[in-house]
Write a structure and sequence with these properties.
CATH class: Alpha Beta
Order of helices and strands: HEEEHEHHEEEHEEH
Distance between the termini: 48 Å
Strand order of the largest sheet: 4-5-6-7-8-3-9
CATH superfamily: Leucyl/phenylalanyl-tRNA-protein transferase, C-terminal domain
Length: about 220
């Protein structure tokens, strides 16, 4: 049986070379696409007026690393027209080990009820490799009042990565949903050229301050 430390080291080594895992429901394979989707961490990052107002409204209580396992399992849940997802139980377990080792992180959005209880309605998670953050998946629960919760979490993620001086926010595969934020593609060769310097440039995750995203 592979030791947890070996699993963590193996995954980190693969990510440093530009690979990431996906499951087809039966087996897990490693992928390195021909083009890579990046979300800008500079002024090219675009937030619509509507989303900006939602962030400022503090409709959601936003935290980091308070419910990593709940976030990753919510991301793995099937949805309408999506009976299976690429996020298999084995990948989820591996990322929980990465989280325990301090490499994987989540941003979560909660609503509060009249009794003051918090309900998880959206979130995202990813893996920090030096000064690069590899975003893995995100989810929202609009039926529980979480409309746009994942988008709000993304705004908070970008603010946090900027504060901690990260250089790359990798969204991996092309996704039209992220175009609204100014996401852009680079070739696999370009990504491979820029990754080593960032991956070897250590960054602390640091303390998360939701007020940093009050744009």
């Amino acid at each position: 049986m592979t030791e947890p430390a070996d699993t963590v080291d193996t995954i980190l080594a693969m990510y440093r070379e530009g690979w990431f895992p996906m499951s087809d429901g039966h087996r897990v394979d490693w992928y390195k696409p021909r083009t890579r989707l990046l979300i800008p961490l500079d002024d090219r990052f675009h937030v619509s007026g509507t989303l900006r107002a939602k962030v400022r409204s503090r409709r959601f209580v936003v935290r980091s690393d308070h419910a990593f396992s709940r976030v990753i399992h919510a991301c793995a849940e099937p949805g309408p027209g999506r009976p299976e997802t690429w996020l298999s139980p084995s990948i989820a377990r591996a990322f929980e080990l990465l989280h325990l080792a301090g490499h994987a992180h989540s941003i979560e959005a909660y609503t509060s009820d009249a009794s003051g209880r918090h309900h998880l309605v959206g979130g995202l998670y990813g893996l920090a490799i030096g000064a690069a953050f590899c975003g893995e998946s995100m989810f929202s629960r609009p039926e529980l009042g979480g409309t746009d919760a994942s988008k709000v979490c993304l705004v908070h993620l970008v603010a946090h990565l900027r504060r901690q001086k990260f250089a790359i926010l990798d969204a991996q595969l092309e996704n039209p949903h992220l175009n609204q934020f100014g996401a852009y593609t680079v070739s696999g060769a370009e990504y491979d050229a820029m990754l080593p310097a960032s991956a070897s440039d250590h960054r602390d995750w640091g303390s998360f301050d939701p007020d940093e995203a009050m744009i």
